[in-house]
Each structure stands twice: as structure tokens, then as C-alpha cells.
Design brief:
about 400 residues; alpha/beta; Serine Threonine Protein Phosphatase 5, Tetratricopeptide repeat; six-stranded mixed beta sheet; four-stranded parallel beta sheet; 17 helices; 10 strands
């Protein structure tokens, strides 16, 4: 039965009141009735689409929003909301079309320009995205999302000075923002500037996330009248990242190392497993905070502690990389056999750090985005006397190194 004008007005008023109170679940069916009764009403369709967006029902929001944009060709908000829906659905090319329409209607809208940048970036058009973020900042030079996004693009193409400038500009408005401070720290550390970067890197501990923290006071470097626990902050203590950090960073301090069970037989020192009682410990520190707490630099790293294993080199070469080894080499891929290898090759993973800590000649193949801990330069690593870092894409350098073994 067709709804009367009075009934439609009553439904609309009730729906708008519910939406204003945040009850989008209650407003949506009422708005759906209004839209069905007035299928050519751009406003009714637009409001229905917005309610579904609020409810996270993006696939269902698309159809009324597309129709609303057709019926409201000169209303920028209709095109913006359609674009937002399409971006969530992964249809970035269509979202860009909607944003271009909105931009023509509101050429001085910084948010529209910023969202054009997001769509362009999702399409892999990074140069155009950088320009769009720049357009947004020409309108509002304090727009933090555009500053942060452009900084990411600048850093990706190697312009870390420009990226740092954008992050510094964002921090003027939000000086205590942990995400921005962490970004600044990562940029500085990536260039080897530990003096300025390490403090900012501690901001990661203020950001909610899947990070392990024992129920102990956080050590700040002060003298202790009890035992100190140092631990990998990764939630998965058996994962490669936690194993790597345990081998690389457990040095320079009198402490018990919380580590994966598989490392206990290697480490020559007190260890604890995750889940063990914490009786007797008075404080704890994540391994990645030790450079900051102990004032390390790449030039003054403490020596790694000893390991229990004794090396018995053979003709084998440890191979811990998906890169195919040259023919004719005797390859070993079992990490338990590392002490018998005369050379070990691989990406920045725990077997590489174990081999280097054992004093075995080791080649680390650096990826495109290396961990800041390694430092900005290739060659002999300051972390281990037998570790050499080379560009993982430089096959000639790897072949030359293998030729010398």
C-alpha cells in the first residue's frame, strides 16, 4: 500500500531523530521505507546511504548512494559519501571519479583533495597522490592526515628530509601524538640518527596494539635492588622477529632474558620463559628499548654475549633465503646445524643473527626497507665482527662474496 505524504513525513522525522541520537540501526528501516516510497528523492536515498555507512553495511549503502549522486548532481556531499563507500569496497577508480565531481563543486575543500590523494595512492599513482596531498595542504597547511600521508610517500621515494619536514609540521599541532613521534623516530633512525631518533621510538609503547608487556614496572635505566627482566615485545615469542631481537639485542646489561624455548640451549646466561613466575624481578624492559635506555650508538655497541655452542666448520654453507644458491655449493638449511657451516647467507632473520653471534662468517641480504637497527650503510656490521651486509638485489655482490669463500 502506498504511503501518504503525512506518513512519509512522520517516518522521516522519526528516522532523523533516531539518527541524531546515534540509533542508526533504528533509523535505517524507516529510511528504507521512505526511499522505497520516494525512489526518485535524492535526499531520501542519500540519508539512507549515510545510515548504512554508519552501520558498516557498505555493500548495501552503495546502491542508494549511487542513485543519490545522480539525483543530486550539484551536492558535493552526495559524491563524497559515494566515494567513501566505494573506497571501502576497494573500487578506487570509481571513487576517484566521484571525488573529481565533488572537487569541481567545492574546489577549496581540503578533505576532498586529501581523499583524492588516498584514491590515487590506492591505484598506485603515487606521484599524482603526492600532488593531491599537496593540493590539500595548500588549502589547509595544518591538515595532519595529508602531512602524514605525504611524508609516507616522500620517505618511500627516498626523500627523508621532506618526509621529516612534514612530520615536524604535523607535530606543531599535535606535539604529544605518539603516532607522529614514532614516525619521526623511524625516519631519524632510518638515517642512522640514533641521538634524536631513539627517544621518539619509545612512543611505540604508548600506542595500543598487540604487544606483550609483563606485569612489572618498566625499567628506565635506574639502578635496581633486584633482578631485571629484558624481553621481546612481540606477542609471538616463538616468531622470527622475537627470536631475532633476543639474539641481537640481549647484550650490555646484567639481566635475565625472556626468550623462546628454542633459544635456551644457545644462550650462555640466565633465561626465563614467557609465563614463568615473575617473583624476584623488580623491573622489566623491552629489548628494543635497550639502545635508548643504555645510550647505545652504532659506534659504541656492547659486544654480544657468548653462546653455548661450539663451531665445527665443514664444507657446508647455511642458506636461509628464497634466492636459489649457485650450483656446486653444499647447502645447509637446518638451523640446528649452523655451528657446522663455514658461511651462512640469508635475509635479516634469526638464523643469520645466531650464525653471526657464533662468529661464523655471515652475509645478511638487506631488503628494500631494512630494520633501522642495522644502520644505513652496507658492509661490515657493527653488531657482529663476522657479519657483512649487502644489498639483497645485488646478485653480483653476492656472487663475488661466495667466490671468496
Amino acid at each position: 500500500m502506498a504511503l501518504s505524504d503525512l506518513h512519509i513525513q512522520t517516518l522521516t522525522r522519526d528516522a532523523v531523530q533516531r539518527a541524531a541520537a546515534g540509533d542508526f540501526a533504528g533509523a535505517e528501516p524507516l529510511l528504507a521505507q521512505v526511499a522505497a516510497a520516494r525512489p526518485n528523492s535524492g535526499q531520501a536515498l542519500h540519508i539512507l546511504g549515510q545510515a548504512r555507512l554508519k552501520l558498516g553495511r557498505f555493500a548495501e549503502a552503495r546502491e542508494p548512494l549511487e542513485r543519490a549522486a545522480k539525483f543530486l548532481p550539484r551536492e558535493a556531499a552526495a559524491h563524497v559519501n559515494l566515494a567513501g563507500c566505494l573506497m571501502v569496497l576497494g573500487e578506487h577508480a570509481d571513487a576517484l571519479v566521484a571525488l573529481d565531481r565533488a572537487g569541481k563543486l567545492k574546489p577549496d575543500d581540503a578533505a576532498i583533495a586529501h581523499n583524492r590523494g588516498r584514491a590515487l595512492e590506492a591505484l598506485g599513482r603515487n606521484d599524482d597522490a603526492e600532488q593531491a596531498y599537496g593540493d590539500a595542504l595548500m588549502i589547509d597547511h595544518r591538515l595532519i592526515p595529508s602531512l602524514s600521508a605525504r611524508a609516507r610517500l616522500l620517505a618511500a621515494r627516498g626523500d627523508w628530509i621532506g618526509a621529516l619536514s612534514d612530520i615536524e609540521a604535523a607535530l606543531v599541532s599535535r606535539p604529544s601524538d605518539p603516532q607522529l613521534r614514532l614516525r619521526r623516530g623511524e625516519l631519524l633512525l632510518g638515517q642512522g640518527d640514533w641521538l634524536r631518533g631513539l627517544g621518539d621510538h619509545e612512543a611505540r609503547l604508548e600506542i595500543a596494539g598487540v604487544r606483550y608487556t609483563p606485569d612489572l614496572p618498566r625499567w628506565q635505566g635506574e639502578p635496581l635492588a633486584g633482578r631485571l627482566l629484558i624481553y621481546p615485545e612481540q606477542a609471538d615469542i616463538e616468531g622470527d622477529a622475537a627470536l631475532r631481537d633476543s639474539l641481537m639485542l640481549a647484550r650490555g646489561v646484567d639481566a635475565v632474558v625472556q626468550c623462546a624455548a628454542r633459544l635456551e640451549s644457545w644462550l650462555d646466561g640466565p633465561t626465563a620463559r614467557r609465563g614463568d613466575p615473575l617473583d624476584g624481578f623488580v623491573a622489566a624492559a623491552p629489548l628494543r628499548s635497550l639502545p635508548y635506555l643504555l645510550g647505545w650508538t652504532l659506534e659504541t655497541l656492547p659486544s654480544p654475549g657468548p653462546l653455548l655452542a661450539v663451531t665445527e666448520p665443514s664444507s657446508r654453507i647455511g642458506w636461509f633465503t628464497p634466492v636459489d644458491p649457485p650450483e656446486g655449493l653444499e647447502i645447509e638449511r637446518d638451523s640446528t646445524q649452523l655451528p657446522r657451516c663455514r658461511l651462512v647467507v640469508g635475509e635479516d632473520s634469526w638464523p643469520i643473527h645466531l650464525a653471526a653471534r657464533l662468529g661464523i662468517p655471515t652475509v645478511l641480504l638487506r631488503g628494500e626497507q631494512p630494520d633501522w637497527l642495522l644502520g644505513p650503510r652496507d658492509g661490515t656490521s657493527p653488531w657482529y665482527r663476522t657479519l657483512e651486509v649487502i644489498d639483497g638485489a645485488d646478485r653480483e655482490a653476492l656472487a663475488a662474496r661466495l667466490g671468496r669463500c
